Amino acid sequence: MKGLSGSIVALVTPFAEDGSVDFGALGRLVDFHLENGTDALLTLGTTGESSTMSHEEDDEVCKFVVDRVAGRVPVIAGSGSNSTQTMLEKSLGFQKMGADGLLLITPYYNKSNEEGIYRHFTTVLDAVDIPCILYNVPGRTGCSISEKNVARLAKHPNAFGIKEASGNIGYATKIARYLSDDFCMFSGNDDIVLPMMALGSRGVISVWANVQPKEVHDMCHAWLAGDHAAALKTQLAGIELVDSLFCEVNPIPVKYALELMGFGKAVYRQPLCEPSDAAKATIAAAMKNAGII
């Protein structure tokens, strides 16, 4: 994890027709990423629909992905919860299963005040022995990690970095002052990967990479290598596809996109459901224009 940079896929969790986790399809997706240069896999994040999965299912998926990857790239497990105690228990469990890192989200719904959010994170940071990525996504959670808390948390030895998914470049610029060799940033928005990398981000935790893993990997590493023109070409070429993957709430479109790629039927856990006919047409057109289907 220490030198991790590039493309971290926010991996979907495929479900079978009966609603159970489809481990066969999950294995094929893991292999797809290992074959196409994805730098790390994030399982059980927002895109992985973990919010509608049981703790037992979370454990099974984490263990399966860790075992399938077998140390070839880092596996990061989303252990976040609005209950600090639950996040702590899940974090310790995923660490024991062999996860290389953890993704920790702010306490949604109950939200908390600034000190409570700081304690929410430090409770886990103090207890685990693996690197943790803080997850700032106020559009989902209703609260943000304040600049002051980023400055405080960045000093913790187990705080590896932050996934910044507010889409607010002004906020990202402010917290970029706290980046170092020991605390990094990853873009949480596929449409502004390069602007974020210009601020010091090491890459992206990506929905887009589910369908174009090689392109997202190559784009990030081109930027890091100084080939900004090549990276920019990929970012701009991918905008139509990225927009289509968010034409309805994530992960509805990306699961349909994977269905079009032959990875099995898109099945969702309620309250998520299949995209509208108009959204399906938008996704299919973007996939065709990108040469994926």
From TrEMBL:
* Broad class of the protein's primary localization: cytoplasm
Q: Where in the cell is it found?
A: Cytoplasm
**Enzymatic reactions:** L-aspartate 4-semialdehyde + pyruvate = (2S,4S)-4-hydroxy-2,3,4,5-tetrahydrodipicolinate + H2O + H(+)
Q: Where are the transmembrane segments?
A: none
Question: Looking at the record's lineage, which domain of life comes first?
Answer: Bacteria
Active site located where? 135 (proton donor/acceptor), 163 (schiff-base intermediate with substrate)
Annotated GO CC locations: cytosol
* GO MF assignments: 4-hydroxy-tetrahydrodipicolinate synthase activity
EC no. given is 4.3.3.7
The pathway where this protein functions is:
Amino-acid biosynthesis; L-lysine biosynthesis via DAP pathway; (S)-tetrahydrodipicolinate from L-aspartate: step 3/4
Record site feature (Part of a proton relay during catalysis), residues: 46, 109
* Residues reported to bind pyruvate: 47, 205
* Keyword annotations from UniProtKB, A to Z: Amino-acid biosynthesis, Cytoplasm, Diaminopimelate biosynthesis, Lyase, Lysine biosynthesis, Schiff base
| One of the GO BP terms on file | lysine biosynthetic process via diaminopimelate
Q: Which SMART domains match?
A: DHDPS
Q: What is this protein's function? A: Catalyzes the condensation of (S)-aspartate-beta-semialdehyde [(S)-ASA] and pyruvate to 4-hydroxy-tetrahydrodipicolinate (HTPA).
Its family? Belongs to the DapA family.
PANTHER family cross-referenced by the UniProt entry: 4-HYDROXY-2-OXOGLUTARATE ALDOLASE, MITOCHONDRIAL, DIHYDRODIPICOLINATE SYNTHASE
The UniProt entry, under NCBIfam families, shows: dapA
Per UniProt, subunit arrangement is: Homotetramer; dimer of dimers.
Protein name per UniProt: 4-hydroxy-tetrahydrodipicolinate synthase
Q: Which organism is it from?
A: Slackia isoflavoniconvertens
Name of the gene encoding the protein in the UniProt record: dapA
